[in-house]
């Protein structure tokens, strides 16, 4: 870190954003955030460029030690690396229609939310970084459709509340296949996982 640089001005990483998104997901599941607050904060998470922008989004929520992005000066310089593929785009649609597709590296935890929107996410060209992925898919007065490649094992834990949470399964599970754990809620909306 450069001398005199405020730690809050440090650029946030994808991992920092994912940790904050996980905190918000837990707070939403526990009833600490309304659907509107959750969607608003999640949108801000994926627009945040610095750690200082992420910090206020979880300041009023209980956070396990080491989970929130730390706004402290690092003791050693961090190694720089260039990913083989593009990082994932923000998977948020609020009062809009959105389609996300292309080749990017899928991290071990992904959050997608559609609020009063129609969103289509195509993951068939994605590179899976880990053998197991936790995918949170929430549709609030909206529709969210995720396309997964064939051969991926899907385990659904989604909950429909006055809506539909539908997962299209493959005929047979392949041993050694990537596992995608789908969680979330369809509140007056629909979530569909298709092949």
From TrEMBL:
- Organism's domain of life? Bacteria
Query: Which InterPro entries does the UniProt record give?
Result: DUF1707_SHOCT-like
Pfam families listed in its UniProt record: DUF1707
Domain annotation DUF1707: ranges: 10-62
Write down what this protein is called: DUF1707 domain-containing protein
Give the source species. Carbonactinospora thermoautotrophica
